[in-house]
Structure formats: structure tokens, C-alpha cells
Specification:
By secondary structure, this protein is mostly beta strands. It has one domain: 2,3-Dihydroxybiphenyl 1,2-Dioxygenase, domain 1, CATH 3.10.180. The radius of gyration is 14 Å and the shape is globular.
Length: 88
């Protein structure tokens, strides 16, 4: 589902039928990557919440896998986003 082009990958598979309750997946993943905006552009319509600076100090966006696992991608705001955006 996600890769950074430098060997880092996240591959998600579908859970066993009946294992998850629809709309109640308690699992999540966080991918730390400097190129937040580039990854968001590449994922296009799969992005649920666009990249923004969060109060907890991360510049991040989120998406969901087929089993509704929340996947967030981000980088610390203090170090600057790949777009050159400034923290709030």
C-alpha cells in the first residue's frame, strides 16, 4: 500500500472474515516520512484527511486500508514539512 522508494514498505492484507467488526477496527499504523506532501499526492483519493500541522507537533495526513485500519503518515512540524509549509 505504501513505499518510500528507498526500500521502506508497508503491505497490508485483508483480515480473516469475521475477525473485525465493521467500522470498529481498533488498529492503526504510523509511518514517519519526511516527504509527507509527496506521499499524499501519490495516494490521491485514498487520503481521508489532508496533510496539516497537528497540535501534537506532527505534520500528517491519514487514510484507511480495506479493513478500516487507520494509517497516518507524518513528520515532526518543527523540522518543516516537505512542502515548505510553516507550522501553525
Amino acid at each position: 500500500m505504501l513505499s518510500d522508494g528507498r526500500g521502506g514498505k508497508i503491505h497490508l492484507t485483508v483480515a480473516v472474515k469475521g475477525w473485525l467488526v465493521p467500522g470498529r477496527n481498533p488498529f492503526g499504523l504510523y509511518l514517519c516520512a519526511e516527504n509527507v506532501d509527496e506521499l499524499a499526492r501519490n495516494l490521491g483519493g485514498a487520503v481521508l484527511h489532508p496533510a496539516e500541522h497537528k497540535p501534537w507537533g506532527m505534520y500528517e495526513f491519514s487514510l484507511s486500508d480495506p479493513d478500516e485500519t487507520c494509517v497516518r503518515v507524518g513528520w515532526p512540524s518543527a523540522s518543516g514539512a516537505s512542502s515548505g509549509a510553516k507550522p501553525n
